[in-house]
Amino acid sequence: MSPRQLRYFVAIAKAGSISQAALALHIAQPSLSQHMATIEAEMGVPLLKRHARGVTLTPAGQRLFDRASAILRQLDHLPDEVAAAQGLPRGEVRLAMDGSIAAVLVAPLYRAMEARYPDVRVFVTTGLSHQMRQLVESRSVDLALMPNAFELPSLLSDPVYEEHFCLFAAKGAWSPRLRRIRFDDIGDRPLVAADRQHDQRKLIERVANARRRSLNVRYEINDAELTRALVRGGLAQALLPVNAFAATDGAPSVLALDIVEPALTRIQSLAWPAGTPLTPAADATRQCLQETVAALMAEGVLQGRLPRSASRAEEPVD
């Protein structure tokens, strides 16, 4: 199968429609349909399920899509990798991370990358944790800063920092002298949280179930800024990572109480697809981001704990 056929197939899979893929590729739809028929004949199995709204991938089609995406990425990066052997890395890197932490990290990361690797261009995408997993596994991004990567056998990961959770509330909701709160003392206060697909919610629910406590999740919102707005407005409180308000002007109006008994923590890691080596540009970005996080923690901009060894295996933390 030729690289052109792989590109045609990947374009169809991403578009979910042969006609839409034909428009994007600037070729006639009958010609693209014929190419698709040739690809399926060569593979010997159906790759697409055709329906009124377009096409979806069969299990075999999904496997080909994953492998084809990786092969095409390697082909696209090949000139940059060869050139990097003669000097500094160059090329494009697609990086995904949570929006709240991106607001703190992106400017210092870009500043460091431009100083050290001027020929590397980093494109940042933000999203929820389950969205970042999908982006990495589909190879739509090269790297993702995401939690709980050690749980995913399809990914390789490098721990960046460990963060603890706080209960965030509008000032006045608790005594100003209070600095920490037991999980059981949260009680039935109204909370705002992401839906149950989100890793933060899963962590909180696991702890609550283990302690036979029920949480009063009054609002389900999958948007970090809207969640912060409800907290600042006093409508609800939120159990969030300690850095959730790090980049907001509203932080002085919000009280953060460390959650104890038990403490809630998680590890943020840089993750990438297993079986797909990092390009020199992506590896340079990985190292630069880790150093940027360490510098921001030393300055007190970010709170957390750096891993004892960047090469250690990650362990789940209760």
From TrEMBL:
Recorded hits in InterPro entries, A to Z, give: HTH-type_LysR_regulators, LysR_HTH_N, LysR_subst-bd, WH-like_DNA-bd_sf, WH_DNA-bd_sf
Keyword DNA-binding appears in the UniProt entry: yes
Which superkingdom, per the lineage?
Bacteria
UniProt domain HTH lysR-type: residue ranges: 1-58
User: Sorted alphabetically, which Gene3D superfamilies does this protein's record hold?
Assistant: 3.40.190.290, Winged helix-like DNA-binding domain superfamily/Winged helix DNA-binding domain
ATP-binding in keyword set? no
The signal peptide, as residue positions, is none
Q: Which Pfam families match?
A: HTH_1, LysR_substrate
Q: Which UniProt keywords apply?
A: DNA-binding, Transcription, Transcription regulation
Hey, which family's this protein in? Belongs to the LysR transcriptional regulatory family.
**Name recorded for this polypeptide:** LysR family transcriptional regulator
Q: Which organism does this sequence originate in?
A: Hydrogenophaga atypica
